[in-house]
TrEMBL record:
Residues 229-411 form the Dyp-type peroxidase C-terminal domain. PANTHER family: DEFERROCHELATASE, DEFERROCHELATASE/PEROXIDASE. It comes from the Bacteria. The keyword Oxidoreductase applies. It is found in: Cell envelope. Keywords: Heme, Iron, Lyase, Metal-binding, Oxidoreductase, Peroxidase, Signal. Binds 1 heme b (iron(II)-protoporphyrin IX) group non-covalently per subunit. This is Deferrochelatase. It catalyses: heme b + 2 H(+) = protoporphyrin IX + Fe(2+).
Length: 424
């Protein structure tokens, strides 16, 4: 590395440390807020296409403090931004300061309040894009750690979650390294796009020099049409078969990491998978409705399984052993065969549409930000992904990026912070 790059890195770190010292001393309704005009850039900084006007999904506020991060089990919001970062903090002390800062900013942004007045000669402490006061607008902030955070830089090798690794390329993937992996993941979700972007600018300002964007993709959730689960760009309802993680017993079996072989600090966290999936919609739009429905195993209009009449009807695979009604290679049948042996591979799915405009050939560049949470990457996501290999739908989708992360345990009270148990 050249002296110039070393000096630039040191300036970024010093800038971050100054920002952390100045901006996080007070938190809550009168906390020091950030966000001048710092722009986040990466392989893409395209804004999401706003969802049509509708009653926001899950517009109610979620508590910031708790055993788990609130954004994990919360229903999908109307707008989201998903980012992966390379940590540029120099050592464990600076990493600790970075996570303190992210926690303090998230605590303020989710609660809302009046940004700190810094005086008439200083830049304003807030971008002002939400007005003179930051409103409570249902914002959730979810932070995860990638496998690369547990290298030699911060002395965390012996604390890596048992199953955390770099996301591999599966059989039907076409992964672009520029869109994969990261030391940290950050998802910001809210009922309104301006709330998401305001939070993004705020966190960017306060963490400048501590982490650098590796990739970013913005997404949105369409309102249910006409009801039930929202639809993806292929026109089908997305997320109908989610387990009921509101049931503590179900969540304990499928979602949360607890006592056992995992490092003790991971209790209350969960494994996060992000998959960036382009959908070849021009090609898809030339396929007959019958073939589309047989690929999914569901009716396009109602979302019902092909052997049912309502969206949430349970498909009766045992009564259709040859796949005469719901084909054996349909998406819902391969993803969840609904047998006693496969019950433990269910996962919590959180999907967002994205729209990046057009590609260089004039084709629509749209698709899905697939996010899922599970207790065990191998038993759940990877098992499902291997079952889906070669399904007919792979001709119409191209997974190109994403990564594996471990969503950190929640912030339990005002004295706690994201990553405390990891770095203690």
């Amino acid at each position: 590395m050249s002296d110039t790059r070393d000096a630039a890195g040191e300036l970024r770190r010093r800038g971050f440390l100054r920002g952390a010292a100045l901006g996080v001393g007070t938190v809550g309704a009168v906390a020091g807020a950030g966000a001048a005009t710092a722009a986040l850039t990466g392989p893409s900084a395209h804004a999401a296409t706003p969802a049509p006007a509708a009653t926001p999904v899950a517009a109610q506020d979620a508590p910031f403090h708790g055993e788990h991060q609130a954004g994990i089990i919360r229903p999908v919001q109307q707008a989201t931004a998903f980012l992966a970062f390379d940590v540029t903090a120099a050592d464990r002390r600076e990493l600790t300061e970075l996570l303190h800062t992210v926690t303090d900013r998230a605590r303020f942004l989710t609660a809302g309040g009046t940004p700190q007045a810094l005086g008439i000669t200083a830049p304003p402490s807030d971008s002002g894009t939400l007005g003179p006061q930051v409103p409570r607008d249902g914002l959730s902030v979810t932070v995860g750690a990638g496998a690369s955070l547990f290298d030699d830089r911060f002395g965390l090798k012996d604390r890596k979650p048992l199953r955390l690794k770099a996301m591999p390329a599966f059989e039907d993937d076409d992964l672009d390294p520029a869109w994969c992996h990261g030391d940290l993941s950050l998802q910001l979700s809210a009922p309104h796009q301006d709330t998401v972007l305001h939070a993004l600018r705020d966190i960017a300002r306060h963490t400048r020099g501590g982490m650098q964007v590796r990739w970013r993709l913005d997404g949105f959730t369409s309102p249910p049409r006409p009801s039930g689960t929202p639809r993806n760009h292929l026109g089908f309802k997305d997320g109908t078969g989610n387990p009921d993680v509101g049931d503590p017993a179900t969540a304990g079996k499928l979602l949360w990491v607890g006592d056992g072989a995992e490092p003790a600090w991971t209790t209350g966290g969960t494994y996060q998978v992000v998959r960036l999936i382009r959908m070849l919609v021009e090609f898809w739009d030339r396929v007959s409705i019958t073939e589309q429905e047989r690929m999914f195993g569901r009716a396009k209009d109602t979302g019902a399984p092909l052997d049912g009449s309502r969206e949430f009807d349970t498909p009766q695979f045992a009564q259709d052993p040859m796949g005469d009604v719901i084909p054996l290679d349909s998406h819902i049948r391969k993803a969840n065969p609904r047998t006693a042996d496969t019950a433990g591979s269910r996962l919590l799915r959180r999907g967002y549409n994205y729209d990046r405009g057009m590609d260089g050939n004039g084709n629509l560049d749209v698709g899905l930000i697939f996010v899922c949470y599970q207790q065990d990457l191998e038993r759940q996501f990877e098992t499902v992904q291997k079952r889906l290999a070669g399904e007919p739908l792979v001709d119409y989708i191209t997974p190109f990026g994403g990564g594996y992360f471990f969503a950190l345990p929640g912030v339990r009270d005002r004295g706690d912070w994201l990553g405390r148990s990891l770095l203690a």
